[in-house]
Amino acid sequence: MTGLDIGSKTIKIVELEKEGEGFSLSASGIVGYSGITVDRMIDEKEMASLGQIIKKLHKEAGVSSGDVVISIPEPLVFTRTIKFPLLTDAEIASAVKWESEQYIPIPVAEA
């Protein structure tokens, strides 16, 4: 399993392998970068550049696992607690879609 931490100024990667009842570190790496902001997240060139940095780090660290857990900076994440009355499955799907559109600043299909 691979862990990828996209921090405010560094990107870190680790790979863990199952060893008995625990895990051992099989690969790791870190690279500095200029950071990412909400404004820069919508720039396709910035995202492509970030993708290339991650790809290079992945290769240089010698990571082989395809299963990845990702952590991103808190300012780029938001949460909302929404209360719904008792609904059917179909109503829940519709209500979640509608509520999502109220809070997510990009089209839900792209989120």
From TrEMBL:
Q: Which domain of life is it from?
A: Bacteria
Taxonomic classification, please? Bacteria, Candidatus Woeseibacteriota
Q: Which Pfam families match?
A: PilM_2
Q: Which organism is it from?
A: Candidatus Woesebacteria bacterium GW2011_GWB1_44_11
> Which PANTHER family is this protein grouped with?
CELL DIVISION PROTEIN FTSA-RELATED, ETHANOLAMINE UTILIZATION PROTEIN EUTJ
Name the UniProt record assigns to this protein:
Type IV pilus assembly protein PilM, nonfunctional
